[in-house]
Amino acid sequence: MFPSMKQVALLCALAGLVLAAPEYPVPGSAESNDVFDGYVSYSIEFASFPDFAGNKTHPNTFSDVLLDNLGQLQGHKPYIRVGGNTQDYALYNQSLPYALNGTTNPSRAVDYPTTVIIGPSYFESYDTWKDVKFSHGFNLGLGGNRSSGWQALLDTVPLACKALGNGKLYVWEYGNEPDLFSTSAQGPVRPANWSEATYVSQWHNGTRQIKALVQEHCPETLESGNHGYMAPSFAGVNNYLKEPAAWAAGLDGDQDIKLFSTHNYISGATSPGVTLQGTLMNHAVTKRAVDVHITEYNKILSQSSDPVPPLVFGETNSLYNQGRPGLSNTFGAALWGVDFNLYSASVGFKRVHMHMGTNFRVCVVSLFSL
Ligand SMILES: *[C@@H]1O[C@H](CO)[C@@H](O)[C@H](O)[C@H]1NC(C)=O
Ligand SMILES: *[C@@H]1O[C@H](CO)[C@@H](O)[C@H](O)[C@H]1NC(C)=O
Ligand SMILES: *[C@@H]1O[C@H](CO)[C@@H](O)[C@H](O)[C@H]1NC(C)=O
Ligand SMILES: *[C@@H]1O[C@H](CO)[C@@H](O)[C@H](O)[C@H]1NC(C)=O
Ligand SMILES: *[C@@H]1O[C@H](CO)[C@@H](O)[C@H](O)[C@H]1NC(C)=O
Ligand SMILES: *[C@@H]1O[C@H](CO)[C@@H](O)[C@H](O)[C@H]1NC(C)=O
Asked: PANTHER family from the xrefs (predicted)?
């Protein structure tokens, strides 16, 4: 993702630029953060994954080449998280003859389906890219709300196991942004008394069920130490549920959370006053948005006697609600991406997953789904 100094020099040479050479004093030592490999990674909206990856008969080779190129630039292929709002709508029908039947309800969301049924061939999409590790997001939203949701978990763990068991599993995920479950603008899936304690008990119920099925269907992931989760995948730090309270309620009681995943958007597609210069190309705004996560994570570190898993952005991008044309899909937003990712690395984030879905407006071009 980031060009080396040599490449920068070459680019400048090619552009024939004459650079002034200001000198900046560089401190002899500074705090360092050893980020993980594939530092800039991606998150693909659950319902968009078949578009981005294709399937056995129609693999999306464009995406494959793109990921190869990004891997070569960065020294390691990006990790792919498959999840997002639509993971918590996904039910399962084993007779569906194609990957995904999505129905959009504009009164809930215009950019993605809120009724989602996947079939067995959904899992073919995990087989189209070389040497990529994935996280698969299971449905806690409906899983803890109705029996068809719970049944989807029982039906799809064996399929996800088969698709990812053989060395492709990065981590599992159970629930996307559960801090919004009782207040979601796309329709709540929990009553008003939804709490950290209830969340933690439902998360344990589901993740223990997943582990029991993993034991049966892909025990090699347990033996190789690859079983584990990214969690809590909260949308932010100011919502109805709070990360430190979820941690204090025993979220990691089973010690199987491998990545402490939180989400961030700098602002919203329709938030008043959002501009390219004032919002995205404004380092102070980026810094403030990232720093609140460090404050929250530090609270957890100071309250926890057990080790806390490393911090990642499991989902992030510029403007929530899929971005806004003329702002989040411009080259200025690309500069924001460089600033955001470098700043996050400088304060302790180990990996960042930039989020994208079919026809979302958070990219200069919709790279994966061309
Ligand atoms: C499952 O999919 C099949 C094939 O599309 C369809 O006929 C059937 O009605 C679906 N079942 C449910 C419960 O939606
Ligand atoms: C594979 O992808 C093609 C192209 O999108 C689609 O027409 C076909 O139905 C898919 N096959 C399955 C089994 O989902
Ligand atoms: C697709 O989902 C819609 C909404 O749930 C349903 O009415 C339709 O029958 C489904 N189609 C198939 C082929 O299952
Ligand atoms: C399921 O979601 C509905 C809102 O869609 C909510 O009223 C209900 O309390 C939820 N049930 C459970 C068991 O969480
Ligand atoms: C939360 O509310 C639901 C119904 O809205 C009720 O069934 C449940 O017992 C309540 N839970 C708690 C912990 O009060
Ligand atoms: C887990 O949740 C499912 C579905 O709501 C329920 O059937 C099951 O009894 C729960 N298990 C425990 C141990 O709470």
From this structure: BETA-GLUCURONIDASE, BETA-GLUCURONIDASE C-TERMINAL DOMAIN-CONTAINING PROTEIN
pLDDT tens digits, 289-324: 999 999 999 999 999 999 999 999 999 998 888 888
Which tokens in the block code for residue 219?
């025990």
* Residue of minimum CA distance from atom 9 in ligand 4: 191
Q: Which of 352, 157, 160 is nearest to 259 (CA)?
A: 352
Report the relative pairing of strands 311-320 and 257-268 from DSSP bridges.
parallel
User: What is 18-34 written as a DSSP string?
Assistant: ----------S------
Q: Chain-centre distance of CA 90, in angstroms?
A: 17
State whether the beta carbon of 150 lies less than 6 angstroms from ligand 6: yes
Cα angle at 291 between 288 and 296, to 5 degrees?
A: 130
Domains of the chain: 33-356 (3.20.20.80)
Q: Point out the ligand nearest to the CA of residue 193.
A: 5
**CA–CA gap between residue 190 and residue 202 (Å, rounded):** 12
Could you report the per-residue pLDDT of 251-302, keeping only the tens digit for each?
999 999 999 999 999 988 888 888 999 988 999 999 999 999 999 999 999 9
Output the CA 207–ligand 6 centroid distance in Å: 11
CA distance 122 to 342: 34
The CA distance from 305 to 311, in Å, is 17
What single-letter amino acid sits at 115? T
Query: Which residue in 107, 106, 96, 92 sits closest to 46, CA to CA?
Result: 92
Q: 54: which DSSP letter?
A: B
SS3 261: strand
Q: Are 368 and 359 a contacting pair, CB within 8 Å?
A: no
Q: Are 229 and 280 in contact (CB under 8 A)?
A: no
